[in-house]
Amino acid sequence: FKRALGKNDKTGAKRILETPVTYTLYHIVKERYPTLKDALRDLDDALCMIYLFSLLPQRSGVDEHMVQLCHRLSVEWYTLVIHLQSLRKAFISIKGYYYQCEIEGETITWLVPHRYSYENPHYVDYHIM
Question: Which listed residue, 27, 70, 125, 127, has the most CB atoms within 10 A of its CB?
Fold first, then answer.
C-alpha cells in the first residue's frame, strides 16, 4: 500500500485496500500437532476453558456468540465421549467435576465448574482468556 502511494498509483492503492486479506492457520496447526495423539495430549487446558466459558452468564462481558460456541463444543465433546464409551474416572471437588477419559491411548482430564450464580469481577479481561 505504501509503495503504491509512494508511486502516486491511486488506483493500485485503492485496489489493495479493497482486496480482502485471506490467510489460513492450517500450516501452523499442522506444524504444532503433526499427529492426532499430539493434539490429544494438549487438549486438557482447552477443554477446561471451553467448559468455563460455556457456563458464563450472558452479562459477563464475553461475546454471546463465544459462549454459545463453547456450549456447543462442550455438548459435542460429551457426545464423543459417550459414543466412544471412553469415560474412565469422575471426581467431585470444591472446584467442580473432574472427568478423565482415554482416547487413542491418551488420557485426557478436564474440569467442569459447578453451576452457581456469581458476580464476575470487573477487573478481569476476558478477551485475554
Answer: 70
